[in-house]
Design a protein that fits this description.
11 strands, alpha/beta, 34% helix, two-stranded antiparallel ribbon, 347 residues, globular
Length: 347
Amino acid sequence: MNHPPPAMPWRITFDTSPDDCNLRCIMCEEHSPFSPLQKARRAEGRPKRRMEVGLIRRVLQETAGKGLREIIPSTMGEPLLYDDFDVILDLCAEFDVKLNLTTNGTFPRRGARDWAERIVPVTSDTKISWNGATRATQERIMVGSRWDKVLSNLRTFLEVRDAHAATGGNRCRVTLQLTFLESNVHELADVVRLAAELGVDRVKGHHLWAHFDEIRDESMRRSPAAIARWNAAVRQAQRVAASHLLPSGRQVLLDNIFELDDEAVRDLAPTGDCPFLGQEAWVSAEGRFNPCCAPDAQRRTLGAFGNLHHQPFTDIWTGEAYGALLRTWRTRPLCVGCNMRKPGGGS
C-alpha cells in the first residue's frame, strides 16, 4: 500500500535532548551500558544535542491547524531534563495541540506532583517506561531506576490526573510502556494486573531493536522457541486484562501485545502496513527531517529528506525524496524487519 501524505502529519516528534538522561536502560540506543555512542561523543569533545526551542515554534506555526493534533518531545533521553520543556507546554496551549509524553518515571528536577500539574492539562497520553512488575526486573533493565520511587511517582501522577478530570478538566490517558524482552516477558501479565489495580489505562510495548550483541538474546523474535514463549505470555496477559477490570469497568487496553507466527523472526507482520509513513514525522535535535522512529543509523539508510533549519516543513513533506519512500518502503530491508508494524494492514 502506498501512502499519499495528508496536508500535514497528525503528529510530530521533536528529538529535543537525546543526550540527556538520568537512567541507563539496557536496550537504549544511546544510554545503555553497552552503547558506545555517548562515550564516543565525550571522547571526541562533541557538545550535547539540544534542540533550539524556536525550531519547534516555527514548525508549529506552519503545521498547526492543518491536521496536526499532537507533538511528542524527545523519546530518546529523558524529555523532562530539557531546559525549555515549560516552553513546549506553553506552545501546546498556544497552538491548540496536545502533548504526547514518554518519560522514564523519575520525574527529575521537580518531582511527580509538580510535573503532573503542568503536564496533565495539555496532554493526550503520558507513557511511563515500565519494564517489570518486580523491583529486581525493573531495576535490572532500567539501570538507575528505583522501584519504590517510580511506583510512588506513578501513583502521584494518577492522583493528579484523576483530580483534574473530576473537575471537568482534560483527562490524560496514562500508559505503561515496555520493551518486550526475554528478561521481562514472564512478568507481562503482572504488569497488566498492576495497571488495572492502579487505574492505568493502557499497557503498550514494542519488540526489541537489538543494537548490541550483549542484548541479542533478549529479543522475543530471535527464534521460534522465543516466539512460542512470547505467545504464551500474550495469552496470559489477555486473560488478566479480561478478568482484572479498571475502576471504570473497562479493560486495560493492550497495545502491540499480539501473538506472532514463526515468520516474525524475519518479518513481524507480513501483511502489516507502516503506521508512520504519510502519518507522522520526526525532527532531530539538529533539525533533520526523519520519516520514522527506527534507530538513527538505520533510518538514515532510508534517505536524506531535508533540514527544517533550511527548508519549510511543507516542502519536505510533499517533496520528491519523501514521496519516493512512500512508494517504495516495502522494498527496504529496514522496513521489512521493522518492530513497529502490526498485522492486518492497519496501524
